[in-house]
Amino acid sequence: ELQVDELQRSLAGLEKEHRGLVAELRAGEAELARLRSVEGDKLAQQDRVAQLEKEVAMLREKIHHLDDMLKSQQRKVRQMIEQLQNSKAVIQDKDSTIQELKERVSYLEAENLEMHDRIEHLIEKQVSRGGHSSRARSKSEYVSSKRLTGPKPLPLIRVVET
Questions:
Q1: Whole-angstrom Cα distance, residue 109 to residue 99?
Q2: GO biological process: any one (predicted)?
């Protein structure tokens, strides 16, 4: 009986130890599962970090490309502005030249009209001096002049016959 009691105590101790070991096993398995989960999360996080790093690199590259395009467009705009300013300066210069030429043309037209009037006056003076016979050949023999009219007044054309 003593041996049976001892065996029963020993068995109870073994059962108690067994339960303790089973509890430790379960706790260890739970810890292992938790660690595996954390590692899995870390791997998922590492994958997400790698994906985000790739996206950031792509966005930086796109931004760099867009900056280059923007700088290029700004250079083109500056060049176009310079060309416009140069063209305006050339146009203003040509406008002033045209204005000067218009003034000269007006002056020459006035001078031309004055000369034409003088010639007509001289011809009439000679006709009145020369009598009746010279009147027949008056303007055609001495001086031929013609005033041309049109959108742009032309200079007086004089032909002197000798």
A1: 15
A2: intracellular signal transduction
CA gap 27, 153 in Å, rounded? 116
Q: Which strand (E) or helix (H) includes residue 146? A: strand 143-146
Pull the structure tokens for residue 33. 């599962």
Q: What are the beta bridge partners of residue 143?
A: 160
CA distances from 44 to 37, 41, 116 (A): 10, 5, 105
pTM over 0.85: no
User: For each successive 10 residues of the chain (162 residues), what is the average pLDDT?
Assistant: 78 86 90 84 83 90 90 89 93 96 96 95 88 46 46 56 56
Could you give the CA distance from residue 111 to residue 117 in angstroms, rounded to a whole number?
10
Which of 129, 126, 151 lies closest to 141, judged by CA?
Answer: 126
* Gap between the Cα atoms of 147 and 154, Å rounded: 8
DSSP 137: T
| DSSP category for residue 154 | P
